[in-house]
Fold DnaJ homolog subfamily C GRV2 isoform X1.
Amino acid sequence: MIRLYSTSAFYFALAYPGSNLLSIGQLFTVTLVHQGFHGGEEAAVSASLPLAKRSVLGGLLPESLLYVLKRSGPAAFAAAMVSDSDTPEIIWTHKMRAENLIRQALQIKVLQHLGDFPQKLSQYCHVLYDYAPMPPVKYPELRDEMWCHHYY
């Protein structure tokens, strides 16, 4: 499971617009820091790095949501993803998810990222997907916020 990131499963999971995110949270809990996207090494070995740098989700979600997942588990993560929060531990709104994460991840970045792969796949079902990381998702709402020791 160390190479799950190379399937782009994380991108597609985060592009899901629904509210039943418990299964996605469970998947993310198991794989949070166990992806070999850092030159083939497991990110868990780099415990000195911030969580956002150790996780493939670091470029997709604010670090505060990663800590909700790590500390409180998949149910709390799923609840946080669909709620509005403005606390020292987490700043996240439905608007941030809809406009920044889902729109950027699904409508813009994934489609650009995949390029002509869907067309190739429809012509030849055994074509291999060539993984390339997407640019990070930007959250303008967090631009002026300082994240320090797990608090804003």
Remarks:
- Residues 94-114 form the longest helix (21 residues).
- DSSP finds seven helices and two strands in the chain.
